[in-house]
Amino acid sequence: MVTIITTSDAERKMLADAGYADPAINYYLEKKYMGYIENADQVSENVGSCGDTMKVYLKIDDNHLIKDVRYEITGCAGAISAAMAAVDLVKGKTIDEALKINDGDVFKVLENIPEKKHHCIQLAVKTMHKGLQEYRAEKVV
């Protein structure tokens, strides 16, 4: 009897063996906020200490509520899962509320990622904050 393992199953097992919790794995596999927003209100980019690059696209309404966020990422599973979790934390929030989101908040959503990937959480949060701060500075909110 031959057991066939799908790519998704193999990735899930590999990530779990590396120390990623199920929520972090799901964020990585689903990548539901990957991409870009045409006519975004703000686009900002950041490069991490490891060389991972994140570009964040923000769509913000007239009441300063974050309507949509997308990331383009060249990076590892830690970077992708952290960015996707950060989006879930800020969507629907005001700019001020979103700027209060910190690394610990993202880590709680992910539940666990390998310790050597914690800098990915910092990069996702810093990139989000940079975009929000640049939007605020340009739009004089």
Map the helices and strands.
Layout: H1 7-18, H2 22-30, E1 42-47, E2 53-60, E3 66-74, H3 77-90, H4 95-99, H5 103-110, H6 118-139
Antiparallel strand pairs: 1-2, 2-3
Helix pairs in contact: 1-2, 2-3, 3-5, 3-6
C-alpha geometry: elongated
Order of helices and strands: HHEEEHHHH
CATH topology: Sufe protein. Chain: A
Reported for the largest beta sheet, the result is: 3 strands, antiparallel
Helix-strand makeup class: alpha+beta
Amino- and carboxy-terminal Cα gap? 64 Å
Number of helices: 6
- Low-confidence runs (pLDDT<50, min 5 residues)? none
Which percent range describes the beta-strand content? 15-25%
Question: How many domains, as an integer?
Answer: 1
The whole-number mean of residue pLDDT values reads 94
At the first level of CATH, the class is Alpha Beta
Rg (CA only): 16 Å
Strand order of the largest sheet: 1-2-3
Helix content: 40-55%
Q: Report the strand count.
A: 3
* CATH architecture classification name: Alpha-Beta Complex
